[in-house]
TrEMBL record:
Protein name according to UniProt: Aspartic proteinase nepenthesin-2
Top-level taxon in the UniProt lineage: Eukaryota
A single MF term (Gene Ontology): aspartic-type endopeptidase activity
Gene this protein is translated from: LOC110758374
Domain (Peptidase A1) ranges: 1-339
Organism per entry: Prunus avium (Cherry)
Family membership: Belongs to the peptidase A1 family.
Keywords: Aspartyl protease, Glycoprotein, Hydrolase, Protease
Gene Ontology CC terms, in alphabetical order: extracellular region
Stored InterPro entries: Pepsin-like_plant, PEPTIDASE_A1, Peptidase_aspartic_dom_sf, Plant_Aspart_Prot_A1, TAXi_C, TAXi_N
Stored PANTHER family: EUKARYOTIC ASPARTYL PROTEASE FAMILY PROTEIN, OS07G0603500 PROTEIN-RELATED
Amino acid sequence: MASFSIGEPPAPQLLTIDTGSNLLWVQCLPCTKCFEQASPIFDPSKSSTYTTLQCNSPYCTISPSDKCDPSNNCKFSHKYLDGTDVAGLLGTEKFTLETSDEGISPVANVVFGCAHDNDCYNGQPSGILGLGPSNISLATQLGSKFSYCIGSMKDPKYPHNQLILGDGAKIEGLSTPLEVYNDLYYLTLEGISLSERRLEIDPEIFKRTPSGTGGTVIDSGTTLSFLAKGAYDVLSAEVQKLMDGKLEKVEEPDIPSALCYKGIISQDLVGFPDVVLNFADGAELGLDIESLFQEYGQNEFCMALQESPVGNDLNVVGIMAQQFYNVAYDLAANKVYFQRIDCELLDD
């Protein structure tokens, strides 16, 4: 999550960070349909710095068909894979961001979406902060670098999570090449290791095909991670070998393809080895038990690395896999950096 204020007077917002989409949008009054959120819904009519974006703006490309309303304001709409469906008007507004020295930095004329008709979004945030590679993304509006550090997702009050936009981003750790394709961030995943042993998985499984299917993307807006069937089957079999005779395997009707067991992660998986995602140029992402497994129901848990949906060979590195890491993006240099660290150490 990222918190900041928009408008004048400033109105606090809490947004979900999403590297898998581009547009930053918040719910706005008047609502045709809005979901519940923790903070009051933003009212652009009460902000002295809000302006709607006209259809001749170069940013007015989110919804190229039927993109103008009768007043020549630029409309947008977007549907997410989880079923979230939002629509409204593009505008510009003053954003007030916190600085690393606990000060504030106002940024004028940030392009964002004022969403009036919204469906199916779950949770308390007031919208989504898209950090994709297009020109409308907040990341590219403010520069070519950004970084985020995520602590334990089990602790919603953890105070040291951080998002840094622009030249102040923490560009540290081992890097791996970044490729932009279809407005997604693709990485070169070369293999997966368990118990310090590289698993026998054909590396072609992780590559994008000439037709553009498959490959490996990093997406902070997706909770779980997903592997193409060939890679998932190998990893799943190895995990089951480690569990056999120790924990009872169970099936969850809601997620029949997931690998699930009876037990408590913190008690029953002490000493379980890390799963390591091995990327090009030596960068690694190590998944401990908090990143590899997710509690599901009472005294049950499932592996948070699941098989990609049938017919979809895309490998996805979701946000659970990025816990306890500072992840940095340098879009000018086409690199992503991974640094395993306690986020509190970055507060200095």
